[in-house]
Fold this sequence. Notes:
- The protein has 85 residues and is mostly helical.
- It has a single domain, classed as Acyl-CoA Binding Protein, CATH 1.20.80.
- The mean pLDDT is 96.
- The protein is 66% helix and 0% strand.
Amino acid sequence: MTLKEQFEQAVAGSKLISSRPDNDTLLKLYSLYKQATEGDAPDEGPANPFDFIAKAKHNAWSEIAGTNAQDAMQQYVDLVAKLRA
């Protein structure tokens, strides 16, 4: 199975995690997914300075800038496997 197929299975499996992960873990999942599928975060963050959730997501994604798509996919697959165990 290719890494892309494993990643797609992990994305589907992430919706089946029995208990809701903490916010830091959710941000990690979000940032790894975005990095794997879109690359580095745009320089500008959310337009609304009071949208704290969007700002947290953008910050988490920006923190892993430079991570290549394959590494982000593998980290995502590993994290979902750990959460489903």
